[in-house]
Amino acid sequence: MKTDLPQSFRRLEYRPPIYTFDQVELDIALDPVRTIVKSRLEVLPGQGFEVGAPLVLVGQELEFISLRINGQAHRQFELTPETLTIQGLPNDGKDVFTVEIICVCAPEKNTSLMGLYVSNGNFFTQCEAEGFRKITYFLDRPDVMARYRVTLRARESECPVLLSNGNLLGTEQLPHGWHSATWEDPFPKPSYLFALVAGKLECIEETITTSSGAKKLLQIWVEPHDLPKTRHAMDSLIASIHWDEKRFGLELDLERFMIVAVGDFNMGAMENKGLNIFNTKFVLAQPETATDADFANIESVVAHEYFHNWTGNRVTCQDWFQLSLKEGLTVFRDQEFSADQMGSESGRAVKRIEDVRLLRQLQFPEDAGPMAHPIRPDEYQEINNFYTVTVYEKGSEVVRMYQTLLGKDGFRKGMDLYFKRHDGQAVTCDDFLAAMADANNRDLSQFRNWYSQAGTPRVKVQEQYDAVNKQFHLTLTQSCGPSPGQPEKKPFHIPLKMRLITAGNDQAEQLLELTQASQTWTFDGIEERPVLSINRNFSAPVNLDFEQSEADLLTLFNGDDDPFNRWEAGQKLAMRMILNHRLPDAKLIEAYRNVLLDPNLDPAFKDLALTLPVETYLYEQCSSVDPQQIFTARRAFRQEIAKQLQLEWAALYQQMQTPGPFQPDAVSAGKRALKNLALSMLLDADVTTWAPMAVNQYRIADNMTDRYAALAALVMNGAKAAQECLVDFFSRFAKEPLVIDKWFALQSSRPPVDGLDLTLVDVKRLREHPAFKLNNPNRVRSVIHAFCSNNPASFHQADGSGYEFWADSVLALDPINPQVAARLARALDRWRLFAQPYQNKMKAALEKVAACQTLSPDVKEVVGKALGN
Ligand code: B3K
Ligand code: ZN
Question: Is residue 110 part of a domain?
Fold first, then answer.
C-alpha cells in the first residue's frame, strides 16, 4: 500500500555507523553554475560494522559523474535521488579502502541556503544539520568524524579569497587565471562543521597570545565597504577567548580563527571549525547603524559560536537527538559570559531577567503547544525544525540547574571530567549527566526526566504561618500537563532557591530540592509572618501556581534583595491587573515611582521593571484568548503608567542623557534604554505635546539607538511626524541593508493606534517594495515574521485577513527556502488557545497550507503537528 505519511526518525533507532572515514580530501573547483567536487575518502569499518554490508552514502541535488575504488573505476553501485549505494567492496569492507567520487552541484540555483550557495557573488556554505550532502555524497552524520584536507580552486579575478577550515597549507597560481588554496584541519570533525568561503572579501586581523603562550591569528572577513564595522566583533571574540580560558580552562586550539559575514543566511551564525560563518546582523556594528541591542547580540553570538569550539566541536553529538548537548550547554556558556561582561551584580541580574523574559515569551508557549518536545527529542521528521527555543533556551536552563545543584565549583569539576572523558568523541546527553554526577559523587538519576519529558512543570505553593509555634510551613506540589505523545509525567528534580523575608532580615537564602510530587518543609523560629520569595533568580524553569497576596507582591517589588524576584513581583502584579482589566492602582503607581526614583537601582533594571509582559506571554495565562481584548487592556494599563508618572518620565528623560561620544557599554546602554522608555511613555501619555521632542531626538541623534527609538516612539504612537521621519530614515540609510531591515520591521510591527489599524495594508505594500526580496531571510523576517509574530494585535484580525496573509506567505516562501518558511509556519502553533472567531479562521489557514501537494518536509511537519495529524 502506498502511503504518503511523513517519515519520522526516532532516537531509539540509533545505530552506530557501519563504515567511517579517516582522511577526507576534497578538491572543489568553484563555479556559480557548475561546481565540480572531487572527493577522496579513506573508508574503514565503523562501530556498527557488518561484513559485506554496502556503503550507503547520502547526496541531494547532485549530478553524479564518476566513482573509483582503490584507484579503479567501480561499477557496482546504485543511485537514487538521495543515495549512492556502493556494493562489491574490497575484502567485503573489512580492510581500509579509498573511494573517489566526482560530482557537480549548482550553487547559484541554491536558494535554500543549505550546502554551497552564492550570496552577492561570493560562495558560502552551511552544512548543519544535513547540508554537506548537497556538496558531495557522504556519511553525513555527526558520529562520523574525519580529518579534512581541502583544495579550493577558482578564477582569481572573481574569488581572490579562498578559505576553509583549519590551517592554510599553501596557495598556487594555475593556468587561465585560476588559483588555488589548500587548507588542512588537524582535528577530526563531523561533516556538519565543514565550511568554505570564496570571493571578494577583506579582513581585519589581530594576533593574540593565549594562556599557554601560543600566538593565534584572528580574522574577521567582510565585504570591503563593511570593514569599518568589524571592531566590536573582534573585541567580542578576544573577550570570549580569554573568558573561556579563565572560567573553564579551555584554550583556542587552532593557529587561526576566522569569522566571515554573509548577508544571506538562514539563522544567526554557524560554528564551523576555525571558520565561523555569520549573518551580517551579528557581526557588523557602528554606533551610527547599530543599536545597543545589536551590540549586545553581536557580543553574545560571537561568544556562542566561539564557545562551540569546545562544546560542540571538540566534543560533538552522537546524533541530532542530542542537539541540546551542544546547544543548551553553549547557550548557558554565552549567557554566563554576557552576564560577566556586565561588570556588576545588578548588571548580571538584568541579563538574567532578559534571558528569562525570552524563555517565557517563546519557549513556554512552544512547550505548551503542538510542537512541544523534550530538550532531547525522541522523534522528528525534519531536524531543521528542532533548532528550537526548547533545545536552546530550555536546554540552557537545564544546564544552569546542574550549576545550581552542584555549585559553581562542582559544575566546573563536571565540565573537566566531561572533556577528560570525551574529547574527540561524538557523545550523548547521558554522557554529560554522567560526568556531572560522577565528578561530584551525586545521584542525578531523577534529573534525567528533564531530558525526556516535555512541558513546563507547574509548582503549586502553599504557605502557612503558625504564630503560636513561630513556624512557617511550606508545601510544594509539582505537576506537568500532557504533551504530544506524553500523557503522564514523572516528578522532576527541581532546585528552588528561596528566602523568607522578615522584618528582622535574619533568614538566609536556601536551596530546596523538590523531588517528590509533593513535599512540605517547616521553618522554625520565625518570629512574625514572613513574605516568601521563591524561585529566586529563576532557579528552575517552572510556572509557579502561587496566589500570593497583592500586599506581599508589593513588599517584594519594593525591596526583595533578589533583583530577579523583585522584578518578577512587579510583573505578576501588572499581569494580574491587566488580565482582570484593571488599571494600576495608587499603590502600584507609588511602587513604580519609587523604583524610578531609587538612586541605587541600575537604569537598565528600572527599564525592565517598567516594561510590561508581552501580549503573547499574557495569552499563555488564559484558557481562551481574545487577542483584541488583551491588547486593549494592556495598552490602557500602560497609558495609565505613562500619564500618572508623566513628571517622572520627563525628569528621567533629561537625567538619562549620555553626553559625549557613543559607548556601547552596559551602563550607558541602560541609561539610553531608560531614557527611550521615558520618551515612548511621554508620547503615550500625550502625543501632541511630546512628539516634537522625539522628532528633535530623531534629527540630532549621533547613534542608531537614539535615532531608532525616537522613530519607533513616533511610529508606535501614530504621531503625525512619523511618516516624514520614515521617509528620511529610508533615504539616509538606503545603502545599509541591516538598517533598512529595521525600517521594514518597525512598520510591520506597528500596532493599531486609536482603533485604526492599517498595518496589514502597509505590510502588503512593503512586500511589493523594490527593496523587499523573498529570497533574503533577513528581509523576510523583518517584514513577514515581524508582522505575524511580533504584532499580535494587527495580526489577529477577526476577519482572518492576517491569517490569509500568513498562509500565502508560507506557500510563497516554501519553494524558495523551506527552513525560513517552516519558521514562519510556527506562528499559528497556538491556534487552539484562541477564542472564536479567531480559532476557526486560524485552522482554515493551516488547512489551506496543509492542502498544498508540494510542501517541503519542513513545513509539512509544522502544519501537520499543528493540526494534530
Ligand atoms: N549550530 C548552528 C545552528 C545550525 C542551524 C541549522 N538549521 C548555530 C548555533 O547554534 O550556534
Ligand atoms: Zn549553537
Answer: yes
